[in-house]
Specification:
5 helices; mainly alpha
Length: 180
């Protein structure tokens, strides 16, 4: 089975991507889950290691940030439509300013997603796929819960922490190689 993976790169214009919230979330989740079972060229299962806390948190946050990106795309689309339908120049300018702020937020989210993906990419083949799948499901569940109402402070803190992944090694230190 061949899977096409599109990594989000900082600086790539995203304002014209599709805004299918449910479809894109399912597609992202499907390719992440499809990546997890890793097999050697001979077809024998590779040695898998239990992911550490950083790796589990990163996988969780990839799902959370993807949901945030989907929401930003939707909000940008709505804001653009409102700007196009504005009845006064002042109202139009307000909607354009809102779109600009949303695009800046989107760029930050995509940069964060990129950092998380770069961190996990060299490790993913050696990690236990069931633990990573659990982190993906938890990230999806928490994102869904927060999209309805995020009144639980622990949940809100966990989801919000994904926007600033301080647990990742700094970019200046260079890539950290996984311990096998």
């Amino acid at each position: 089975m061949r899977i096409h993976i599109e990594w989000i790169s900082p600086g790539v214009p995203t304002s014209r991507r599709s805004y299918g919230y449910r479809t894109s979330r399912r597609a992202c989740r499907a390719w992440l889950l499809a990546l997890l079972p890793v097999f050697t060229a001979a077809g024998i299962a590779a040695q898998e290691y239990a992911p550490n806390e950083r790796e589990l948190r990163s996988m969780y946050c990839i799902e959370v940030i993807r949901a945030e990106i989907d929401l930003q795309h939707h909000l940008i689309s709505v804001s653009d439509d409102a700007a196009n339908g504005a009845t006064t120049p002042e109202l139009r300018q307000q909607w354009i300013n809102t779109s600009s702020e949303l695009l800046q937020g989107l760029a930050k989210l995509e940069s964060t997603l990129y950092r998380l993906q770069v961190y996990l990419l060299p490790r993913i083949q050696a990690l236990d796929s069931s633990a990573l799948a659990s982190a993906i499901r938890q990230g999806d569940s928490d994102s869904e819960a927060c999209s309805v109402s995020c009144s639980d402070s622990a949940l809100l803190d966990r989801v919000t922490a994904c926007k600033n992944p301080t647990w990742l090694p700094s970019a200046a230190a260079g890539p950290e190689t996984p311990a096998l």
